[in-house]
Amino acid sequence: MEERSGAVTMRGNPLTLVGKGLNVGDPAPDIEVMDNDLNPVKLSSYRGKVCIVSTVPSLDTPVCDMETRRFNQEAANLGSEVAILTISTDLPFAQKRWCGAAGVDKVTTLSDHREVAFGEAYGVLIKELRLLARAVFVVDKEGVIRYIQLVKEIAEEPDYDAVIAAVKELI
Q1: Residue ranges of the domains in the chain?
Q2: Using one digit for the tens of pLDDT, what is the confidence trace for 127-160?
Q3: Rounded distance between C-alpha atoms, residue 17 and residue 31, angstroms
Q4: CATH number of the structural domain 3-36+59-142+154-170
Q5: Where are the alpha helices (DSSP H) in 38-150?
Q6: Each residue of 43-82: pLDDT tens digit?
Q7: Cβ contacts of residue 113 below 8 Å, gap of 6+?
Q8: pTM for the whole structure
């Protein structure tokens, strides 16, 4: 498996990402993750919608919490043509608890905890931590990646305006 050293940092310290990494125009890998009720979910089940796929290290951290809440707010302005997915290696039970406590009801949280297959396929698995790096992928209705934002410092939030602009070009 390919590794990319220094692609992201945590508090300025370089980390290693596992996986090749994807490019705009690539088909989105159809990886299976787990929903909050332990059911398998393939990403292809969202075809026909524009998807914001946000990967975060853990919902139980301040920046991931803020990011997921922000995308939940943005969902109201984007309409039913857009699905917003937040994927982490948090256990499904923890994701469900967090969503209930945070009042997040428009973002679908999915877990890559079991095999980290999503993290490897999308090139966002942090080798040293077995967590996902902070990144945002925008996938069109046909399952093609149209925008990628890998946040260099994982303790920082993504550029929400750029993500929303990329989505609006597709709806």
Answers
A1: 3-36+59-142+154-170
A2: 999 999 999 999 999 999 999 999 999 999 999 9
A3: 18
A4: 3.40.30.10
A5: 62-78, 92-102, 117-122
A6: 999 999 999 999 999 999 999 999 999 999 999 899 999 9
A7: 34, 89, 90, 91, 92
A8: 0.97
- How far apart (Å, rounded) are the C-alpha atoms in residues 57 and 145? 21
- Using alpha carbons, list the distances in angstroms from residue 153 to 13, 93, 144: 9, 27, 26
Q: How far apart are CA 94 and CA 67, in angstroms?
A: 17
Contacts of 42 (CB under 8 A, 6+ apart): 30, 31, 32
**Quick check: 11 and 1 in contact, CB under 8 A?**
no
Instruction: Give the residue among 6, 11, 43 at the shortest CA–CA distance from 118.
Output: 43
Please give the positions annotated as active site: 64
Residue 89 CA, chain-centre distance (Å), reads 10
Residue with tokens 């877990």: 111
Q: Who's near 55: CB < 8 A, 6+ residues apart?
A: 86, 87, 88, 118, 119, 122, 124, 132, 133, 134, 135, 136, 137
8, two tokens: 């992201």
